[in-house]
Amino acid sequence: MSSSKQTGSVPNHTKQRAERQKQKRQLRRTHWRRKQELKSLATRRAAQEPKPTPTTRGYLGQRFWKALHLDEGLERVGITKRGGLAVGCILLVVLLFGVMNVNSLTGLSAAVGQDLALCAILGIHALEHKMLYRTLAAISVDQYQAWMTEILRTMQQDPRAASQSCGVVAGDETQVAKRYGVRMPGIRTIFVHSTRTFSLGYDIASTHYADWEKDYPLFFGIYQPDEAKQAEIRAAQRRKELKIDRRKADDFIRWVQSEIDQGNTPQVIELSGNQLNHTLCRKVEQELQIPWVGISGQRRVYTLAGEQEAQKAKALLSRDLDHRWVELTDIGCRIAFLGEATCSLGQVMLVVAEQMDDTVRQLCVLPAQQQDQAVDTLTLTLRRAQEGPPAGKLHLMLDLLRLSREADIRAQTAVFDRWYLVPWFILAVLTLGFKRVIVPAKKGFGYAYQDQTYDLPDLWALWQPNHFEAVNCRGRPYLLLSRPAKMKDLGRVQLVFVQVLSRKGLVVRRFVLVCTDLHFAPLDVLRAYKLRWRIEVCYRECKQHHGFGHFHARTFETIYGQLFLSLLAYICVTLTRLLTKKLRDKTLGWIKEHYFNSLVNLTVSQSGETVIELSGTLLDNYGLPDFCYS
By C-alpha distance, which of 295, 288, 296, 353 is closest to 321? Predict the structure, then answer.
């Protein structure tokens, strides 16, 4: 019997599939051959020892140091050489901590030897880390502050860097967590607001000058609780010894009810972890009738309205939200509404909150409600404390503001977030010489208007849309309304009601500003308050790019010195951008990464002088800051 024979043409799609498979096989063979070629590269002994590539950061830092006469300032405050390398050279090295991409002073000392240009400027070949620690530890906090006074006074002599009376001095605080720093001096348990967890660390209060052309840090202090505050902390620890399991719904409700019975009714209840469950949420709503906000874990699953596939919270947090952000400048964060969703809790609203100083995001879960109501509830949850900071922090802030006045800072306006709405504190700020104080209003205060006392929600109910004036501030539309009022222990103030508009003209957020100057224009009040955001940007920039918080020292002075020089590095980079016209549109991170770390050549002239040859591309495209020519 003869065998069968297949006839007919081959389909085109079969030919194409075969051709693609053939091309893939060829690519795999080519890739394999290239890998074999790389493995066969030869090596040989170098005729000379390889040299590290020098960068321009040492030159820019040295010119900044010389332009501000920092060595002379050190001498005037009594910080002098104590043997070995000059103290100014050591502090210049620590100034470049963040630019050199290291995580400790030990790593910094090792990195110095890898930058030949910096070694040539300092006149050294290597630097021991012990010398860095000893130098920083030998300078007292008072000397650091006196040195900053000298630096700021020098900056006020240059019109381009000098403060203006129309500028503001902003006061705020940030946290530095040190989970394993149990032996660090003055460390204590703090609540880290970005991660909403307790940790060992430091609370750092600071002041910041800002106008629409420039901004730079002024003074800072590390908060240390007094004896009364320590007693309060010990009392809180004793309360934890009560045998109430907060993971159980009934125990949690009983605990909150006991707080209500003692007159400590919470305005909003925050639920997270095991507490964020359907049973407890319903009990809070029905039995306590208090608003709740849930902080979602990253593994929780949600299905957004209009979408069929369920997603984990981690995936929702990673979404691009550039066009949805609503800035809550008074509490240093911004939020973005994802919309309604369904989950094990039922029908909820999802909101992403991001801290601006370190860009940490968290997913907030609320009952389904209107967006303006959700903003009010989230504001209560996200701000650091409803009743304001401890008196010790207020006194520390007053000391920092006093130092800024002594350093000839000309700003007449002091701006704070809602924490600092404390009448005696505001009056104390005015006695320091500030003409006005601007701070957001908050619920719970009595605002007397036309012989009647109102709370904030009642005041908002008095106004009609035609009472507001449409204005534009920094390219964004607002509706403003100003009314005089009286506050207990503070006297007559100006209340500026602000409605933030979207591009479509819808009100996306509203808040009220308290200004102690009745004659200050409402639009100027809003502009001054918006400048407060610069201190949040400074915190974020210093933590990300200048090693703010990367300290592991065992002496308080060393820790203070590293924080001080981190803020001084911020001044160096901001002045570099301010005094270089072609860098005005660049971010500080870009300047640090590309401009300060651009490559240079190191040569020696016939006279024996060390010459740093800058890149022609850098000089042609950007040029040098003006302080390099002083």
Answer: 353
> Closest Cα partner for 298 from 309, 312, 287?
312
Give the pLDDT of residue 504: 85
Tokens, residue 323: 């066009």
* Identity of the residue numbered 397: M
Q: How far apart are the first and last CA of the chain?
A: 104
pLDDT for 386-416, tens place per residue? 344 566 889 999 999 999 999 999 999 999 9
Spatial neighbors of 270 by CB under 8 A, at least 6 apart, are 292, 293, 294, 295, 381
Q: How many CB atoms lie within 10 A of CB 34?
A: 10
Distances (CA, A) of 400 to 207, 221, 569: 7, 7, 20
pTM across the whole model: 0.72
Question: Using alpha carbons only, what angle is made at residue 468 by residues 463 and 473, rounded to the nearest 5 degrees?
Answer: 140
The three-state secondary structure class of 47 is coil
| Rounded Cα–Cα distance for residues 584 and 586 (Å) | 6
Q: Report the alpha-carbon distance of residue 581 to residue 583 in Å, rounded.
A: 5
> How far apart are the C-alpha atoms of 237 and 233, rounded to whole Å?
6
Q: What whole-number distance in Å separates Cα of residue 551 and Cα of residue 563?
A: 8
Backbone angles phi, psi at 399, to 5 degrees: -65, -40
| pLDDT digit string, tens, across residues 80-99 | 876 677 888 888 889 988 88
Q: How far apart are CA 127 and CA 94, in angstroms?
A: 12
3-state secondary structure of 511: strand
Q: How far apart are CA 218 and CA 561, in angstroms?
A: 14
CA pair distance 339, 369, nearest whole angstrom: 10
User: Is 447 strand, coil or helix?
Assistant: strand
